[in-house]
Amino acid sequence: MPKKKVVETSEQAEQELMDDQTTEQAVSEAAEAELEDLSAPPEERGTAEMLSSTWQALSAARRQSIVLEGKVYSIDREYRPYGHNQNIAEAMVNVFVTGVYQEPLLSSAIRRQAQAAAPGADALISQHIMVSIPFSTEFYQLLPLDMSDLDLDTDEGRRVYIRRQEQMARKFLGQTIPFCITHMERDTGDGDGYDGNVSYAIAGSRKKALPILMRRVFEPRRGMPFIKEGDNVDAKIISVGAHSVQVTCGGIDSIVKSFNLTYRYIDDFRKSYYNGQVISLKVRHIQQARDGSYQMVLSGRDVELEAAKARASKVVKLGSLVHGTFVQISNLRENGRCTAIAWLNDVELPAFVNAFAPRALGDIPITGDEANLVVTGFHDNGLVITNCSGTLGSPARLQRQQF
After folding, report:
1. Distance, CA of 194 to CA of 217 (rounded, Å)
2. Domains of the chain (ranges plus CATH)?
3. What DSSP designation does 177 have?
4. Beta bridge partners of residue 297, listed in sequence order
5. Which of 16, 53, 229, 330 has its CA 20 to 30 A from that of 218?
6. Are strands 349-356 and 384-391 parallel, antiparallel or unpaired?
7. DSSP state of 371
8. What is the C-alpha to C-alpha distance for residues 89 and 78, in angstroms, rounded to an integer?
9. Burial code of 13-26, b = ≥16 C-beta within 10 A, e = fewer?
């Protein structure tokens, strides 16, 4: 029988996409509500009847390397041999399975294929199935935990080692993460005194899941990649340092440093950003490594410039006096003048400060200092062009002197 040819109008396709998004949003909200209603944490034991219906789904997910998702609910310790007659503790991230991973970048059709590949996986939400994932080797592709200053042959060194792991691991509590199942064991306990319960242990790997997600995003079977250079993407923060953040998007962990993240003056990113936060970034560059993996250069500043282009001339007028904070100051030139980048606090716009003589203003300004700026124009890239008419003190200098 010949196949029926279906002709779909753009209006029908658009309506179907809206219906899919509405359905997915409803399912997501229902799942979140259900997870919030769970009064008991996942258990390492369950009835044989319960596990018989889910063990096969989990086994199928492991064999087919299906990417699942789970919500982090606790951090435990696991001891492994180290040296001669010694053990060392490792932080373990415990998650309960919430279904097949829903990559927001992928189309609804591809997500439905992933759901069908692991039948019964979504039913695991109500089963409180627990999976353990080692923290130190699984959560950082680019910035592994720095333990080089520790002597793990000493009791104190081993205590600091596990304390650092646990402090960082706790920041993931409540987050949803992708993973693949790597190992499964269960004990049916069919000997004397068997009470119908089954003990089990399931291990997972986040690092195994990321390349799978990466291939789905950058090497789809049909059509263009889901992420391209110039796209704006939503990335989830997985680690925050004083002057950089590490984000994950499309199966790639990327580091975004201060000069790429924002034009705002922030002396310590740990005060303004947190694990699990989703931020908007522009993809500046995508590069494929020799091993087939992908790397991305991401910028939050480019997103801020795009927004500034649309509103700068509407919120500030030529000749107006604005208040700004120096974010970046160039080196002094031979003529004793310098240029700067500032953030206009009142209107939340980035600005370029024309060459000025800092000595004429008193103390040479440093990043974090505040100034009065006069608007002289607007650059095509979105920056407001200004002249510095005077500084407003040196709060940044005073703060640094206190420490």
Report:
1. 48
2. 38-208 (no CATH), 227-299 (2.40.50.140), 316-402 (2.40.50.140)
3. E
4. 285
5. 16
6. parallel
7. E
8. 5
9. eeeeeeeeeeeeee
Residues 265-286 pLDDT 10s: 998 998 999 888 999 999 999 9
The residue type of 315 is V
CB 130 within 8 A of CB 121: no
Q: Assign 198 a pLDDT band (cuts: 50, 70, 90).
A: low
Indicate the SS3 state at residue 202: strand
pLDDT tens, position by position, 310-351: 999 899 999 999 999 999 988 766 666 788 999 998 899 999
126: nearest Cα among 66, 50, 56: 50
Contacts of range 220-228, beta carbons closer than 8 Å, 24 or more positions apart: 220/110, 226/105, 226/106, 226/250, 227/105, 227/283, 227/286, 227/296, 228/283, 228/286
Contact 204, 210 (CB under 8 A): no
* Residue 360 CB contacts under 8 Å (≥ 6 apart), including other chains: none
Indicate left, alpha or beta for 10 from its phi (over 0: left) and psi (-120 to 50: alpha).
alpha
Is the whole-model pTM more than 0.85? no
